[in-house]
Amino acid sequence: xxxxxxxxxxxxxxxxxxxxxxxxxxxxxxxxxxxxxxxxxxxxxxxxxxxxxxxxxxxxxxxxxxxxxxxxxxxxxxxxxxxxxxxxxxxxxxxxxxxxxxxxxxxxxxxxxxxxxxxxxxxxxxxxxxxxxxxxxxxxxxxxxxxxxxxxxxx
Length: 155
Prior knowledge:
Elements: H1 3-25, E1 45-46, E2 49-52, E3 61-64, E4 67-71, E5 79-85, E6 94-99, E7 106-110, E8 114-118, E9 127-130, E10 143-148
Parallel strand pairs: 4-6
Antiparallel strand pairs: 1-3, 2-5, 3-4, 5-10, 6-9, 7-8, 7-10
């Protein structure tokens, strides 16, 4: 007769643990593999360079680790902008431009050096084109960035 109370106690403890574990499953819902994940939040905006030649909100800037990314993904056809560092601040050590393949064919940068960056026509997803060291120096007063359908058609 002493075994029955233990069996009932063990069954009650198992039922209690099952109830606790099932109620805790709702907090794990965010980690279920079949649940759609929310897209990552957009990076916080930055203001490290002044952009002239276009509306200020046309080409947003943000930091991606230690690289300033100027988002030119809205650019299409031909056009150009001028960049200058913000007053009292020097150029970022690393600078990249986000472009959408198919919208433009090439990106030309005039700074301490001139460089033409071809953009592959396929893909559709924006890509980041990072400038090589030395294209911009701390003494570079401004940078002209031009784009067009091909390297020969730059403005």
